[in-house]
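User: Please run a holo structure prediction.
Assistant: Happy to. Please share the sequence and the ligand.
User: Here you go; the ligand is NAP.
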Amino acid sequence: MKVLIAGGRGRVGSKVADLLESRGVEVVSGGLDDGVDYLEGTGVPEALEGVDTIINVLNTRSFDKDAAVAFFEGTTRTLSAEGARAGVQHHILLSIVGVGQGDASDIGYYLGKVAQEKALAEGPLPYTIVRSTQFHAYIPVLADQHMLDGKVRAPRELIQPVELGELVSLLAEVAITRAPLGELEFAGPERFFMDDLLRGTLAASGDAREVVTVKSFGAVDVMVPRGEYQMGHELYPIRGIPLAD
Ligand SMILES: NC(=O)c1ccc[n+]([C@@H]2O[C@H](COP(=O)([O-])OP(=O)(O)OC[C@H]3O[C@@H](n4cnc5c(N)ncnc54)[C@H](OP(=O)(O)O)[C@@H]3O)[C@@H](O)[C@H]2O)c1
């Protein structure tokens, strides 16, 4: 078995690469640092030589709608088309719980992920979309993203974060079992309100920023799965934060 990890030196990709290699799987990393660019199309056929499975954990820093859509759609279309030419049997994509749901329609980055999922589903390869909730390690970043006028403005919305290591194990498992599953969702075992979670997280690290509870704007409760999902077991590392249920 030979796996191309598109974004293999990124936060998620590097951990998936390590885990697969520790299980004896041949892994190729395909990212900008490896001389592979899925937007420009450079180095893609070479990266895909002999590959049977793609794990797509590419990312862009852009939250602008047009840029995010162009990135996620373009890179995924290239991977699928070139993958089909190279004889790939399974394209695994990491996405986010809640994208594509009606009330998440105003988030540019999410629209990029929606376009990415659509490009994958319309493409020629059998696929699995793994939609995960936010990683535990991402919660402090979420606080930074909600800063306005020196305060963290957090809506009282549900969020169900997950431990990255468990998601990495799931991606590796999906690759090793080889069977395309269509779509599946993955979330942690605890559900919080976002304002409580950010308040407790900042307090635990001695961060004095005030967290103000605000009304939801646009998307509501998109950070929790709504249907069936697989559940991780690892609890949020900071204890004592009130649970939502
Ligand atoms: N953060 C969360 O809580 C969360 C939750 C659910 C899902 N996700 C999803 O997880 C995925 C991976 O995130 P991450 O944090 O691991 O991303 P990351 O650390 O930013 O890594 C992104 C990777 O993409 C590569 N890349 C970017 N543009 C490229 C291009 N044009 N051609 C080839 N490679 C390119 C980068 O290559 P270089 O390293 O060479 O620059 C890097 O390896 C994202 O799709 C995100 O939506 C995140």
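The domain at 2-135+162-187+225-231 is CATH 3.40.50.720 (Rossmann fold).
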